[in-house]
Specification:
Length: 431
């Protein structure tokens, strides 16, 4: 690496010669906001530094995993100790049992889990399981929700798909697109209609119970409960994709917050502590249909990887009541400050937060679904994003993303963020 220039623009130019768009995940490319992506050299706690030595207070948190901040000493120690014992064996380990038990302990709707290496693998597996268990092919997803990049999900998807302007990706077979039905978040009638159009043929409804891939959109009162009832009536399985919300919005995720029982849950991000881990979990009756216990095949060379499971377990073990109280306090402090700024500047923008996951919509009315997000002022968001970045606040480079706080954020960090937020809002308003 020493032959590479320590310059963001030069690195991006070189990167684009060897990797599509110069990145390994599209949303990192600053496509929606313009400008040059920051090549991060190192991170510690709440701070990241780019290759040019610029320091930022980080609200991306690697899109969710870094709930303890970066390079938490106890997580680093767990990683180092595990690495010293060998990085991968392709054989079962006690660490996988420990992580599986911890997840099940925190999410009582799960009796068993299968560990995989990404959120996409988790959601792919959950849908395959649901199709096998019901003998049905169709699934219902929601416009603007993102469940990873498996074919079935890249239909009106959120996150990087929406950011890049391709919510439905080319390259997906028509037959697959036809089995993915799209409902509207917070619109239970749209689900009723689809289930009525395809009686007895919808295997699963998959949903982000709190949407985090179209900014942050909260379920309206009773929506998730109605969804549960509709699925029960239709013999359709309900999959909560909690890759982002799991262990983020509450110790037991959104299903604990809203007290709604999904049939299957998918997890990722935080359970890997910054390393590649995903999981699908649910009742034994469903989970034991997965190979080798049952016929539904799913596999992975690095699934349950010893280093990743060590990082995940260390992270979950540090997420105690005190940690969640701190996350809530930081989130509340930031929300109060931003709302005060919006009021002082007479700006109509919509701030939405659940615990340590939040979003500022450049919209003049409340956001209830993907169509509302698409009406946001993307240019104003882009100006605001750069106004924050220039002053050392690193936000997700897209209106279709959530930003995250960590236990490493201090009151002083939040106070500084609020001040810079005021300046950036004022500046973008004048342009
Ligand atoms: P991964 O395959 O990226 O680990 O997880 C896919 C996924 C599944 N479900 C939900 C609810 C998710 O949020 C994600 C991934 N989230 C995005 C951020 N919005 C990952 C960032 C990226 O694509 O680079």
């Amino acid at each position: 690496m020493s032959d590479l220039p320590q310059d963001n623009a030069e690195l991006h130019q070189i990167a684009r010669k060897v990797m599509p768009g110069g990145v390994n995940s599209p949303v990192r490319a600053f496509g929606a906001v313009g400008g040059t992506p920051r090549f991060i050299a190192r991170a510690q706690g709440v701070r990241v530094w780019d290759v040019e030595g610029r320091e930022y207070i980080d609200y991306v948190g690697s899109w969710g995993p870094c709930i303890l901040g970066h390079a938490h000493p106890q997580v680093v120690e767990a990683i180092q100790a595990a690495a010293a014992r060998g990085s991968t064996f392709g054989a079962p380990t006690a660490a996988e049992i420990a992580l599986a038990r911890r997840i099940i302990e925190l999410m009582p709707n799960l009796e068993m889990v299968r560990l995989v290496s990404s959120g996409t693998e988790a959601t792919m597996t959950a849908v395959r399981l649901a199709r096998a268990a019901t003998g049905r092919d169709r699934i219902i997803k929601f416009a603007g929700c993102y469940h990873g990049h498996a074919d079935s999900f890249l239909v009106k998807a959120g996150s990087g798909a929406a950011t890049g302007g391709h919510p439905t990706s080319p390259g997906i077979p028509r037959s697959t697109v036809n089995t993915t039905l799209v409902a509207q978040f917070n619109d239970i009638a749209s689900v009723t209609q689809l289930l009525g159009m395809f009686p007895g043929s919808v295997a699963a409804v998959i949903i982000e119970p709190i949407v985090g891939n179209s900014g942050v959109i909260l379920p309206s009162s009773g929506f998730l409960q109605d969804l549960r009832r509709l699925c029960d009536k239709a013999g359709t399985l309900l999959i909560f994709d909690e890759v982002m919300t799991g262990f983020r919005v509450a110790p037991g995720g959104a299903q604990q917050l809203y007290n709604v029982r999904p049939d299957l849950t998918t997890l990722g991000k935080i359970i890997g502590g910054g390393l590649p881990v995903g999981a699908v979990g649910g009742p034994k009756a469903l989970m034991e249909q997965l190979a080798p216990a049952g016929p539904v095949y799913q596999a992975g060379t690095l699934s349950g990887n010893p280093i990743a499971t060590a990082a995940g377990l260390a992270t979950l073990n540090l997420l105690n009541d005190e940690a969640y109280a701190k996350l809530e306090a930081c989130g509340a402090q930031l929300e109060a400050g931003v709302r005060e700024n919006l009021s002082k500047l007479s700006l109509p923008y919509q701030f939405v937060r659940v615990g340590s996951m939040a979003c500022l919509f450049f919209a003049d009315r409340p956001v209830h679904d993907f169509a509302d997000v698409q009406r946001c002022d993307q240019q104003a968001f882009a100006r605001y994003f750069h106004g924050m970045l220039e002053q050392g606040i690193y936000l997700p480079p897209s209106q279709f993303e959530a930003f995250f706080l960590s236990t490493a954020h201090t009151e002083a960090d939040i106070e500084r963020t609020i001040q810079i937020n005021y300046d950036a809002l004022q500046k973008q308003r004048m342009q």
